[in-house]
């Protein structure tokens, strides 16, 4: 699910894996394997990729957070600082982990 959201935002903002790779030092191959479900990434690597997307196209991080949170209207992402946005992403990560452990979604 997170991979799909990441890919959707990346495409919407016209961001390439090459651009992310150049900013993060993460190989294009590693990024591609993650996005195609062939490899997992650590939260640190994922965060670096998200930050790179936002540097390339400001607003990409906010758009990803909106997708993850399901565009909940009570959250105004534009008003969140970096720590608050990170908290929202962590909450979604925990929810996703619970769903995954209950095998309610296919993560492969």
UniProtKB/TrEMBL annotation:
PROSITE patterns: HTH_CROC1 (PS50943). InterPro entries: Cro/C1-type_HTH (IPR001387), Lambda_DNA-bd_dom_sf (IPR010982). CDD domains: HTH_XRE. GO terms for molecular function: DNA binding. Residues 13-61 form the HTH cro/C1-type domain. SUPFAM superfamilies: lambda repressor-like DNA-binding domains. SMART domains: HTH_XRE. Transmembrane segments: none annotated. This is HTH cro/C1-type domain-containing protein. The lineage of its organism: Bacteria, Bacillati, Cyanobacteriota, Cyanophyceae, Nostocales.
């Amino acid at each position: 699910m997170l991979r799909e959201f990441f890919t959707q935002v990346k495409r919407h903002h016209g961001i390439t894996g090459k651009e992310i790779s150049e900013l993060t030092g993460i190989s294009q191959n590693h990024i591609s394997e993650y996005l195609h479900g062939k490899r997992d990434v650590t939260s640190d690597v994922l965060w670096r990729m998200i930050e790179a997307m936002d540097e390339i196209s400001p607003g990409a991080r906010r758009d990803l957070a909106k997708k993850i949170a399901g565009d909940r209207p009570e959250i105004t992402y534009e008003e969140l600082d970096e720590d608050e946005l990170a908290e929202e992403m962590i909450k979604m990560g925990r929810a996703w982990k619970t769903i995954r452990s209950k095998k309610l979604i296919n993560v492969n």
